[in-house]
Amino acid sequence: MEFIDIEEYNYPLPEKQIALFPTNNREYSKLLIYKDNDITDSNFSQIHNYINKNSLLILNDTKVFNARFILKKKTGSEIEIFCLEPAEANKSFEFLEIKTEIVIKCFIGNAKKWKNETLSINNNKITLEASLINKSDEYYLVKFSWNDSSLTFYDITEIFGKTPLPPYIKREPIKDDKQRYQTVYAKNKGSVAAPTAGLHFTPDILNKLKSENIKIEYITLNVGAGTFKPITTQNVLQHNMHTENFTINISLLETILKHKDSITAVGTTSLRTLESLYWIGYKAILNNNLNDLFIDQWEVYKYTDTNKFSFDDIILNLIKLLKQLNITQLVGATKIMIVPGYKFKVVNTLITNFHQPKSTLLLLIAAFIGNDWRNIYNYALTNNYRFLSYGDSSILYCK
After folding, report:
1. Do 59 and 124 lie in a common domain?
2. Largest CB tally within 10 Å, which of 110, 158, 263, 296?
3. What number of other Cβ atoms are within 10 A of residue 260's Cβ?
4. Same-domain pairing of 271 and 386
5. How far is CA 94 from CA 161, 187, 244, 273, in A?
6. Helix, strand or coil for residue 55?
7. How open is the CA angle 374-360-398, to the nearest 5 degrees?
8. In what order do the strands lie in the sheet with 119-122?
9. pTM to 2 decimals?
10. d(C-alpha 332, C-alpha 247), whole Å
């Protein structure tokens, strides 16, 4: 790959079709079905009719935390702090359980007005303080400290934080967002953005899928704010992809092996995790060890002999190595950027919302279904589908 023009992945998105609020009920969203070059319409409550029986459905059970704080200077100026991830990379899955103080990588709104002053907010009993530690090109380091040692940072976000709605939802969060910008199966805290393809599922839909003999399993990938980062370079290959951390139970590897020809990923986060898992397994069998659990942005495109090992060989070897190390959960990280030309190794079907123009997510969709992405998006726009995080859904079969 030498050049991918981002303008090839642009389309006009009217503001009126960006969903600012969810539907009254999760399952009331529209559902676009793309299969065998045909596009049809349905409702998400009927999703069970479009997932193959005896197949495997994989969802991301990450949980969004209240990552957004509004603090005031003594002058009255508001400073918005948007938490991204802990400064210590090895704390990515436990940082919300830390007590007393923590340093976080953050975006800051109105940063020019925040110099050396320590900002604080309190609710009579608890005081939270925020101090600016350092600045890099992409984020600020902020130290948070609080006066109750029994409280975790997650507790603090529950008390003082706000729901971190995406930047294109141009309104303040309301009480209902706390529930609706969260999947019904959210479990593992750590995301600053919801895995939005899962927002349409309800307990009834999940039970219906199980009754149709569809196996349901979960991975955890903590979604970062980088998921909203626009591609600003003309050449996609010059874009710097964000890193996200994930965990996968060894039992899921065995289930994947049994359903390898019929796997549906719910959302781009689940898909990127599963494809990254394959490449971690590829490197493990190549190197005969499990020392490298990170997939870099363009790494997988450099491998030339990808047919050297079968899918079964790769997954079975991964299971063997994990068992030898007495590890029940694989913890990895990925920067993988999936663009047209990528050959999918794990996922056959994708449930996903409609994504922003010129985004990494749209490039992934184009890789999954080819140039038909334009027909699908034109159809959705013409037929008044709602776009982005709170928008409608689609189920796409890989070409």
Report:
1. no
2. 263
3. 15
4. yes
5. 18, 14, 14, 19
6. coil
7. 55
8. 68-72, 78-86, 101-109, 140-146, 127-135, 119-122
9. 0.96
10. 6
